[in-house]
Structures are given as C-alpha cells and as structure tokens.
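Sample entry was shown:

___
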Amino acid sequence: MRGLNIILPILASIPNVFCLSKSRSVNDVPIVDLGYAQYQGVFDVNTNTTSYFGVRYAAPPVGELRWQAPQAPANVTGVQQADTEPSPCFSSGEIAPPDTVSTSHGKRQTPAESEDCLFLNVYFPGDSIPGTLLPTVVWIHGGAYNFGSTSMFTGSDLIRESEDGVVAVIIQYRLGFFGFLAGNEVKENGVLNAGLLDQNFALRWVNQHISKFGGDPTKVTIWGESAGAGSVLQHVIAEDGQTSPQLFRGAITSSTYLPSQYLFNDTIPQSLYDQVVEQTNCTSASDTLTCLRGVDASVLQAANTKINTAGLFGTFASVPVVDGTFIRQRATEALRQGKVNGEVLLAVTNADEGSLLVNQSDPLNATFYAPQLFPKLSSNETSAIEAAYANLGSLITQDSLIMGESIFVCPTHFLLNAFQNRSFKGEFALPPAVHGLDIDYYFPTGKALSFNNTAFLNAFSQSFLSFVISLDPNVKVDPANITPQWSLYSDGNTEMKFNKTADNEPNVTAITTDDNLLERCR
C-alpha cells in the first residue's frame, strides 16, 4: 500500500511514553501465579495502577507452530518480572522506532519485532489485587491486521476513565502473513486466520486467569479500533454466534474495519499465498507450506512487507478469510442472520473515515475506484455505486466516502442491526474527525490533544467505560458527565454525536442517522 509511512502512525496511534519512575519497591507488588508461570508487575503511584507487562499467554508460534493454532505456554520456574513491554509482532512496513519505556528499573527500549510475540498486558487499580472482582475490558489494537502492539496504548488511561472500576487487558496477535496467510495449503496443513485464533486464545486466557488479577471473567467486554474493531466483529460472528463458553458479554467497536472477506481458497487469497511462496524461494518445494515454515523469519518478513505495501493506496492484502470452522460465513451474511456472540453492542464511527485512506493527489472516478477497492464487483454493482456517489462532491470526496462508508460505516450499521434492540451508536465528529483520531481520546496520556477539554474528554471516554461496567452508557461512572440520555440505536436510528461548538465548548447531542447514508448501505 503506497503512502504507508503517512498512514501508519495515525491509524495505530502515536506510541506512548510510560512514566513509572515513582513505582513502589518491586518486592511489594503482588505475585500472580498462573500455574505455568508466576508474574510480578509494577505499581505507579502517579496513576495508582498496577501493571503486568509482557505476560505470555501462548507458546512462541515459531518453527512447526508457524501457521498452527496457538498452544499453551510451557512451564517456567521462578518469578518473572513483568516490568517491560513485550516484543511486538512482525508488522508490514516501517513504523516509528520503538518507544522508550521508563520504569523504576531504568529506561529500556521496547524490544524489536519478533515472531515470539504472543503476550498481553494486564492493569488493575491500586497497589493490591482488587478484593471484589471488577468488570474487565480487553483492548484489541488496530492497524489493518498488519501492524500495532501493546506499547502503543496506556492501560492506566482506561482504569482512570472508569474511576478505578475495571481491570484492563491489552493483547498482541500475529499480524500480516504471519497471522493471516490463506490458501488451500494452509487449510490442509495448518490453520487459517491464525491471528484471530490468537485473539480467541487470549480471550480464553482471560476467562481462565483474569480473576487472579481481580477481574470478573463473567463481565468481559471486548473493544477495538479499526482492525481491532474488525476483530471484535469477527469474534461476534465466530462459530455462527455459538462460541462456548461465551467469552464476552459486551462488544465495543470503534470504526469497524471490514474489507472484502473472501473464502480461504478464492483466487485472490490463493494468489497471495503463491506470491509469498515465490518471494521466499519455495516454488520448487514439493510441500510449499513446510518450506515456508523453514524459511528464516527475516525472509518471510521481507515478503510480508513487500506484498502488503504494493496494493491500492489505503488497502492491505493480509486480512481475515472465511475459513469454514471459526469464521463459517461472510460477516455480512452472519450479521444479516443475527448469528452473534455477546449481549450488547456499543459502536462508534468517525465523521470522516475515508479521506486518510484515499490518495488525495490521484482521485479516480467511482467507475474506476470501486472495482480496485472491491475486485469482485460486477459491472451492475459498479454502476450502482457510481450513481449513488456521483452527486456527492469532487472525485476526492466521492472516493473518500466510498472508502469510508463501504469499509467502516456500513459494516458498523450491519453490526448494529444484528444486535436488534441491544445496541448503541455514537459518532466522533471532533474536527477533523479522521480515521484513528478518536484513539487519542481513549488513550490521552502523552498526546497533544487538539481539544483538551476535560468535560469533553470525560463525556466521550467515560461513556465507553460506563458501558464496560454496566452494558449501558447511561449508568455513568461520574454523575457530572455531560453526555445526555443515550437511546438505543433501534429507537429511531438514534446516535450520540461528540463534537465541539464554534466557541470551543463541548457539544454532545443526540442525532438521527442520515437516511441517505442508510440507503447507500443497503
């Protein structure tokens, strides 16, 4: 994807700098015994949060475990010091250099990217494990299924926004072709959607272990942004909505990301597999997948980056597929049938989801742009898209709307309708309201916010944490929160719009979804 270095930092958010320099003595921080390992975290007196960085939840997915389902970690002896960010998973393209993590044990760099990356961070309020189990929020990072890591998000922000009312977990999962390689060969001798299975394995880890950190496994909400929200959608439809045991009760999506989701052996994902084989010199092997498992990670990573950055501006090659087992049908079909996991949904989109992902210097007529975005479109479908967007502004505006609505906004409305009478809808409209800008307002630590208004920050971020605690944004963690009564989306297509006035005052109001938008989403 051209323009990657411009888009990546905004989509994934700017890495945070953690300042834990006033931590307690490490000997005072609780040791948590997971059975296979013991972990001791760090306490930050500035945020009143105890953090466990780099808790291993699965075995290293290397060698024979490359493109296999995640496996349980091996037993380790001794107490593991959970005071350093884990190695990020290999990503597609260059991101900003590793951020500096400041702890009571000195400054350390976030480790370099690695295939051994199946770790998570856990955060709870205070300096001791909560005596009463708290609702738990699991954050799944975005990044187009191709980049992102735990180090980009400060879990203590979520603790603060909940008024010390939740336990937070931030997970990592395999990315790019390490996590989303498809094709017949992978189906026959490995697993498809390995990155989604990592996430599922992490959720099962939460179900088994989060009570040891003071979290309530029966009150879990999963939340993600962009591909993280797309991941939430995939878990909502996983196993046709019959996941057992149920791993979450609440689901939050911020900019639901749903690019074309092909059957695993469709010509497009099969062609991508063949390209990976060719670029890793495995073409002549009798068993190409075995050959790929033996390729050095750096060689596979080079192919991963080259292929994923070569496509249409704003698009990425390695994404989830219909695998027939975990994801049994296309998301649009599963949602239409109401086959969903979870009890209640809160979904938010940004007012301008598309412009950041459109090449502003090379706009295309919808007749040419739509088929590049969706290669399987028929000529009749292409003509319908052209007619729907022809009178909505310049070519750049049309392309931005097509990208934003087809990939993010319309999938969000499909999801809302699947949770009939059980969903809330919000819109982040704070200018410029581009894709990814809302992340700064969930995780504001270290950010230069364009609208650093406490009332707005609380109204926006606390609504999500209120939902985590009670499945209802109207049951406010802070009674002073200015967000008005938030109706269910089914009550007249009602949304809550978060914006500011011309006088730089918070403007949080209920609106009705534009009928023209809903018509374009049909």
